[in-house]
Structures are given as structure tokens and as C-alpha cells.
Amino acid sequence: MSAPSVTPSKAASPRHSPPPAAEPVPGGGRCAKSLRRNLTAHGFLIGAVLCFAFFSWYPMVREFLLAFQKTESGQSTWVGFDNLVTVVNDPAFWQAWRNTLLFTVLALVFGFAVPFLVALVINEFHHGQGYLRLLVYLPVMLPPVASVLLFKYLYDPGYGLLNELLRFLHLPEQQWLQDPDLSMLSVVIASTWMNMGGAALIYLAALQSIPGELYEAAELDGAGLLRKIWHVTIPQTRLILSLMLLMQIIATMQVFVEPFLLTGGAGPEGSTTTVVHLIYQYAFNFNNYGAAAALGLLLLVLLAGFSAAYVKLSRAEDE
Q: What is the pTM of this model?
């Protein structure tokens, strides 16, 4: 007699049934990718902050501490405001500030107006602007030492190109870097040529963002070139002009490279001694790091106060 057949469904025991497959978590892959991306971004950010803190914040804090300390034989002792008193009583202190302010004023007359005029001229060319931008920016790409040596050759009283030009025009020759009355002006001219390329390109970008309809409306009102510049160009670029003015004042108050390489820093009768060069002398010629830090702190406070006052006046004007 044959055995009764058993259906597979009844023969299979619940204990031997395969486990159910795990369902994928919705968005799990995207969360992992987002987490890795965030960790990478935070890693780069932390690295940048650490570099900035080490190379910028730490020197500032260290300078603040050194301004109230005196270092001898590798040991620092607190001396209070003695370093500030030493700096203020130095006769070179006031001369350095006068020279720095004179350089700032002359640099604003030349270095602030000339790049804007150059940008206005380049903006009028409809063809070849790329070559003109390269030509204007080329001095910025040159090493500062090479540019300064070029101007030192131009200013040479014997075979310099400027005196050769004066002789050709039957005009009296000049002692450009040896005359106390001309040395600072000579430094300003060299500095303007070396640094005007970046400012000119910034002004050019601002000029090209001005709508052409404004100039067309000004022409319909009968405005000439100067009136269009005064009533259209300058108001439309006022923000950039204000920002560049602030940045240029801060930069010119810290001038060091041009006077140091052209006139040796002090210049004839101390006519090109600037505040930063005096800081350099205190630190590396006199080994008085406390006085150098105190003078640097005074310069920092002055520039910070000027910047804060400028920002406050700009906000009040906008309101």
C-alpha cells in the first residue's frame, strides 16, 4: 500500500524557513556621503583656521605682550609703559610719523587717482582691452626688488634715464634720491607704478558693471564727458572707491619695501624714514623688541581707530 503524499507546504517546517531579507534604510547612502563631505570640509576649514591663528593671531598677541615687556638674555620682564615712553621720546618718532603721513597724502594724490583714470581710459576701448589689462597689470607681476632696481636705475644722477631726458630738454638735472625735497616724491612715483595694476583692474570691473542706459540718459540731457563722470560714474562706483580708499590708506601707512630698497630706509637727512622702518630699526638694529612692539601697537591702534571711524561714517551716510 503506497504512503500518502505530503504537500511541500505542509512538509516545510517553520523552523527551517529562510530569514526575511533586511530592508534598506531610506537615504542611508546619501547620509553617509553627506557625512564624509562635511567631515572633509570641516577638516580643510580647521586646517585653515589653525594656519591663520598660528601666522596671524599668535604674532598679534605676542606683539601685544612684548609691548609691555623688556627682553634681555632671552628672559622677559614686565616694564609697563616704559617702552611706549622710550618710543615717544625718541626724536626719530615724530619724523617717522611726518614722513609716513606725507607718503600717505602723496600716494593718495597719485596712487588713488591715476589707477581710476587709467581704468576710465581702458573702458573707452572696445577692442584690445585684454592686452591693455595685461599691460597695466604687468608691473604687479614683477618682483618688487626688480621693480625697485629698475627705478633706481632711472633715478641715477649720472646715467639715469630721467636725467638724460632732462639734459635732452636742456633742463637742470635732479638728485632724485639724494635730495631731501625730492626723495619722498620719487619713492611715491615708484610705488604708484608698482602697485596701480590691481586697483586699475578693480576700477575697470566696477565701470563695466554700470548700465549703459545711464550714460545714454546723461547724453540726452546734454552732459559732456566730465559731467557724465561726475554724475554717473563716480556715484555708481562710490562703494568701490570708498573701499579702495580705506585699503590704500592702511597699505600706505605701512610702507617699507620701496623706501628701504631705494634710499636705504632713512634716506637723505631721514627724509624717507617711515614708522615701519623705525620698527625695523628698533628690532633688528637696536635689538629692542619691546620698543618695536610698542611702536607697532601704536600703529595698529591708529589704523584700527581710523577704520572703525570710517565704517561708522559710511553707515551713517547710507542711512
A: 0.78
